Amino acid sequence: MLRYVPLLVLHHLLNNISSTRRIIDLILAGEDAEVTSYFAEYTELFNSVQDRLDRFIAYNERELESVRSAGYASRKEIAAYVTKTICPGCLFSVIDGKSKSVKDFLYGMPMEIEQYIEKYV
What we know:
- The protein is mainly alpha-helical.
- It has one domain.
- Helices cover 69% and strands 0% of the residues.
- The protein has 8 helices and no strands.
- Helix 2 crosses helix 4.
- The model has no long low-confidence stretch (mean pLDDT 83).
């Protein structure tokens, strides 16, 4: 009966690999290259999610640079601008020093990352 354990693990992996959340977890863990080397049919899907993650990072870095270069005098002025962006929590986290960078925020971001990167389809 134990000989079926690897098959069960493989079956579980293949059934769960196509969820965006699982792909994000694998990318952030740095396991995407290994997975796509074994399962080449998922390469396009992984590349699509990676592209959206990259665009999320680039967008928020541009917005962060806009905030820093605008010379806002008060927190209220910053908030007025930041709350109109796609992911205000990311910008506030970096501005407040809770995250070192946008990428650092992304790596520590809870489950709602999916809803934000879906805007980068």
